[in-house]
Amino acid sequence: MNTKTKNIIALTAAISTLTLSGCVTTNASKTGGSDYRTAETRKAGEVQYGTLMNVRTVSIRENEGNEARNSSSLGSGGAILGGTLGSGMGDSGSAKGALLGMLVGAVAGAVTSNTIGEVEGWEMDVQLPDGKIIVVVQAKKENEQFNTGMKVRVVKYGDVFRVTAI
Q: N or C: which end of the chain has fewer CB within 10 A?
C-alpha cells in the first residue's frame, strides 16, 4: 500500500471517529432548574417556597448504561484511528506501530468519554414552610447562584423537583 493510500485511509478513519464521537451526547447537562421535558409541559405542578439550609457542588454523571456505551464507542473509535495511523509508521504496515496506535487511541477515547457524561451540579437542602427538609440535585446553569439562607421556589411535577431563585 503506497503512502498516499495510507494517508487517505488515516484521514477517513479520523473523520469517521470524530463524527461518531460527535454523536455521543449527555443528558446530564439538561437537568437544571430551567430544563423541562416535553412530557412535563401543559401539566399542573405544585409550587412551594422554602429556604436553602445547605448548598454544595456535586458531579452529575450520565446513567451508567449510557456511560458504558459512550466509553465503548469512543474507546473503539480511538483504537481504530490509532491503529490506522500507527500502521503507517516505520516499515510498510508496521505491526508495532499499529498496536501502539490502537492502545494509545483506545485509552484516549475512554478517557474522553469519562468526562463527556459528567456535569457540575447543586445539591440543595430546602426547608419548606411545614418544616420538612427535602434535598434536590440539579445541574448548574450559567449565571445561576444558590447560597445558604436564600429564599427559593420549589416546583414539583410528579416525582421531579426543581429549585429556582426568587
A: C
CATH class of residue range 31-61+119-166: mainly beta
Torsion 161-146-122-151 (CA) sign: negative
| Cα–Cα distance, 101 to 103 (Å, whole number) | 6
pLDDT at 17 over 60: no
Domain regions of the chain by residue span = 1-29+63-116, 31-61+119-166
Whether the predicted model's global pTM rises above the 0.85 cut = no
Q: Helix, strand or coil for residue 85?
A: helix
Q: Reduced to 3 states, what is the DSSP secondary structure of residue 144?
A: coil
- The Cα-based distances of 79 to 29, 102, 105, 107 in angstroms read 27, 4, 4, 8
